[in-house]
Amino acid sequence: MNFRRPSKIQERALPLLLHNPPANLIGQSQSGTGKTAAFTLNMLHRIDRTDLSPQALVLAPSRELARQIEGVVKQMGRFIDELRVATAIPDPSKRGVKTEGQIVVGTPGTVMDQIRRRQLDARKIKILVLDEADNMLDQQGMGDQCKRVKNLLPKELQVVLFSATFPTEVIHYANIFAPKSNLLTLKQEELNVEGIKQFYFDCNGDEDKYRILLQFYGLMTIASSIIFVKRRDTAAEIQRRMEADGHQVAQLSGALEGPERDVIIDKFRSGAAKVLITTNVLARGIDVQSVTMVINYDIPESKGGRADPETYLHRIGRTGRFGRVGVAISFVHDRSSWQQLQDIQAHFGIVLVTLPTDDWDVVEEKVKRVIKSSRAGKSTKEMMD
Ligand SMILES: Nc1ncnc2c1ncn2[C@@H]1O[C@H](COP(=O)(O)OP(=O)(O)OP(=O)(O)O)[C@@H](O)[C@H]1O
């Protein structure tokens, strides 16, 4: 896989994960630092190859992330003879078909259903991993489902929780879910990924946002980029306008379900579509190395309209993976979005740089400067220090 050295989180987490007797782990490290490989190596190391029953279970918040993790497990395990890896995600064509894999990666609702219907045999599962664990434990629906899944598993269980963010209110639940864990955590100020250059556009209202977005894309040729919006209808509207403007875009939101989503994300992964317009469903975990830019068309907010710094961090973390550089641009257009951006800056102790909306030469120069340094193959120093 061309991994020359372990990243800091891999170097720290692996000895803790592999130690016997198995201990639980709560592991935090910045986006794109290789958490997947850390928990994957532990699973590959611990499964009994002579036993074909499911022995390790990974839960992830979206079907796209579950499929991506399945791919990593298969790739890292490709020299293990006849290793069986399976997904447990919504798929009407697999109704009633047994999920057979020594390692199973799924979304919590489907996994719960399958265990209950005995479509997934959970009796020999000895490792449970929650990827994006704070999200999995926090959200009312998924938190409940994860707890139920855990209750359906054997008591002797190594529980592994990974995420880039663990807000203080979630750490409490995490400690209950994974008792007596080894802890690898970071301070809030340590979460910023240096390679991601963060900018913002100050727009005059909603319609001006579209105009600036279209002008920006008319100007820049970006390898691949993701545009995050709050609502599904905004996603559809931006898709319509950008396509009318001649751009090849893909759009994915929770409005679509099941395997039809796979076609869309695969089109983006392969580069057939260069722009992906999406909602928070894809804010976390998705690893597409060609993504050099993330746009927060709407600033991420939590239910009461307050800024959601964690989601901001996960969204912009879709670029600048593993020491690469990337650009993140947020759009503010009124008092409340302005305030949200201020709150995010204060939360992480960062300062975003403004991009002018009336001087496109300056915009081009600033953005291209970052992206060019990416082509020069920036060092992975940050990863290793
Ligand atoms: N030791 C390594 N050397 C080089 N590349 C690596 C190494 N470990 C992981 N990678 C690559 O780094 C990228 C990011 O890894 P991964 O998706 O696991 O990040 P993550 O920490 O889970 O991020 P996020 O918090 O955004 O989910 C992947 O493309 C992966 O293949």
TrEMBL record:
PROSITE patterns found in the cross-reference section: DEAD_ATP_HELICASE (PS00039), HELICASE_ATP_BIND_1 (PS51192), HELICASE_CTER (PS51194)
Family designation: Belongs to the DEAD box helicase family.
Start and end residues of each Helicase ATP-binding domain: 16-184
Protein name: RNA helicase
Organism this protein belongs to: Eremomyces bilateralis CBS 781.70
Residue intervals of the Helicase C-terminal domain: 215-363
Coiled-coil blocks: none
Enzyme Commission code(s) on record: 3.6.4.13
Record key words, sorted: ATP-binding, Helicase, Hydrolase, Nucleotide-binding
Molecular functions (GO terms): ATP binding; hydrolase activity; nucleic acid binding; RNA helicase activity
Catalyzed chemical reaction(s): ATP + H2O = ADP + phosphate + H(+)
